[in-house]
Task: structure prediction
Amino acid sequence: MSESTAKPKGLTKGLLTANAVFVYLFFYAPIALLVVFSFSDNRNVGTWGGFTLGWYRDFLDNEPIQGAIWVSLKVAFASTVVSVVLGTMAALALERFRFRGQRVFDALLYLPIIIPDVTMAVMMLLFFSQALDLIDTVFGVQYAKGLTTIIVSHIAFCISFVSIVVRARLAGMDERLEEAAMDLYATRWKTFRHITLPLIAPGVAGGALLALTLSLDDVVVTQFVAGPGSTTLPVYVFGLIRRGVTPLINSVSVVMLAASILLVLFSLVLQRRGGGSVTASAE
Amino acid sequence: MTVLDSPSSAPPPESVGLPVEDADVATPEFERAAERAASRRGFLIALPAYAYLVLFFAIPLVIVMVYSFGTRNRFGDTELANWNLDAYRKLTEPLVRDIFFRSLWLAILTTVICLVIAYPFAYFLATRTPTVRNVMLVFVMIPFWSNFLVRNFAWRVILGTDGPFSRTTQALGLGESRILFTPTAVVLGLVYGFLPFMILPLYAAIERIDLGLVEASRDLYASGWQTFRRVLLPLSMPGVIAGSILVFIPSLGAYVTPEILGGAKTTLMGSYIVTQFLTARNWPVGASLSFTLTVIMLFATILYFRKGGRTL
Result:
């Protein structure tokens, strides 16, 4: 493929390369600066004042932050597990079966993806304010907003993302393998367990990581449905930023960043092993 | 919340009804029965997610609509008894209208800037060798997956009065930079946040194009611009539209970015809605604006699917 005219040359080539360099600088320079300043011994967040690990020590000593991390992890874990199971089942039903109400279901599954965060937050707030009132009048039990309401809301927007990723994987899979298994007298459950599930595993893992990331990232919805004493890390950090920027936020941010980068690398290794496409989740 | 633990972990029902594997030697009635059984099975597998989304998504959406027709009483509570359009009338007041158009303008600006940066980048990416391409893609995926709040915060640090950006402009003799808390900073933050959402679908669309068509166009003496305009752009249109929707939707409803990088004078729709709920306690107005926003998104998406887009 030596001299393809589709490959840009001359000035165009130069401009395209410059643009690519610019894009990567744009992506990574702010992150790099944030990391650098998190080690800076200066109360001013954007000024260098010599090397220190003090802000990381502050981060480790800060009890509200440690508490918020635990809440975040619990929420992310619970909502990922449930949304992966529900999302995978939804994907299977839509890709492998024709049933009544399928089109409505398909549309309903797309909605959480296209709806803005803020609207989703408002929806959950109003829903819980009505639902908790209803539970109070019918059963006489008073539930407060908290961990459960956060998890329920996160699942509501994660299912769709999981099912899209798993569907992409199912669509690219040879259906005859399942038929062969059933011809050989495997039950439906055995076919699913031994043929379908191993083949779609990279998609399921990709969906799980997407759900995990979405749950760990969410600020707006959580802020609306969290109760006292159940703040997730992003909501807590968001509150800190609004009250005033301190170097402590730098160190927390770097830790959050490192966690998400580790997650990406982990997902890439998984996808590579399964031969999946890295962009599957974005399409 | 019993829905959480009810049917979610149940395996797909085992052989409900008739043995489907014999369907090809069966009588028509037998086939129809098998079809019905398969349809029932599909519905049962979809049911947990279906029920979940109806209960925790469709019903909440309807509740928002109901609230948008309600009235705020003197105590800040919402009365749902007499439905009226007062909350929607409030949206036509100059204050809200300004916020709406400002949000719309910034979202369009963000989308256009992302498109202009991402298109050449995606083409560059698509014309690399597979190895280079994969490495480059990984480095696009990392910001795509990284924490959005943190990435916006990074700009707060950079653009601050004593931050590196301001000190650079001072060193260059341009004076102290006053970008932070302006619409410029908000657009910068939005572009930074959503650029990967534009790059990835564009890349997916351009990579699928047979570059032989581009070569053919050049061989037939079309200029670079003509080739782009007549061949490349039309073929990559699904990617352009998908990317634009993926950037436009979150930009229009943005809340975190304007809160961190914007100032008091750059209130956008997202912040306005949040204020109506958490501080002003005017739920009907917040609900009516949320509902309007949802309808706009729906139309944008339906338009996209009408235009033949399939992936999102």
